[in-house]
Amino acid sequence: MQNALFVGVSSQVALQRELDVIANNMANISTNGFKGRASRFQEYLMPVASADSFSRPDRRLSYVIDQGTTLDLGQGPIEQTGNPLDVAVKGPAFIAVQGPAGERYTRNGAFSLNAQGQLVTSDGYPVAGDGGPITVNPQETGLSIGPDGTVSTNLGIRGRIKLVTFANPGALVNDGGNLYSSTAPARPAGLDGRLEAGALERSNVSPVLEMTRLMDVNRSYAMVTSMISRMDELRGTAISKLANVA
After folding, report:
1. Which keywords, in A-to-Z order, does the entry hold (predicted)?
2. pLDDT score at 244
3. What is the torsional sign of CA 224, 229, 230, 232?
4. Which of 12, 39, 52, 207 has the most C-beta neighbours closer than 10 Å?
5. β-pairing, 78-80 with 87-90?
């Protein structure tokens, strides 16, 4: 009976974690370049939860272990904006930016120019170029961004946006502000990443799918809660009857 309660609690912890992931996905449905995540779980067989001395030996117990989340790298829909500073990333590449704690990576291509003329993200972080931050003087006109990330004005090429890929992009870690960090080295994207100017990539989260997942998880959580409640009542009844044995 006690083991059943432990199994139920482990399931509730896993379901709560999945609810958090779904809630974060739904909160970022309108976030440019956002990539959804999915929970990943694993069965754990308790090796010592058995009693082989009984005539009918106990079965080994299965618990739920939270194995983290996986990153959905599917392409989000591309929406035309007409803004020459907006870029949508096509393919598995990421845009490198100079974050507060070093180089970070994003798919959000909603750029602008700061007071120093630097190309920056919507959070004000400088976009990394092959030779450092990309700077445009106020007097320059005709700014355009090519498919390979080349930034040009009427005075010529001003730099090229640094596009990178990773051997295992699923290992990227969310670092806040729609940025990712990685312990593995980034490599030049080459033909694996192209930019479309005047457009933005929207979130790849499907609202309908997330709502379906939310209902399934809520239903499962309610079932486990009901099972735990019944087991607790059964234990109370057993204790009460055993206490009345003469």
Report:
1. Bacterial flagellum, Cell projection, Cilium, Flagellum
2. 66
3. positive
4. 39
5. unpaired
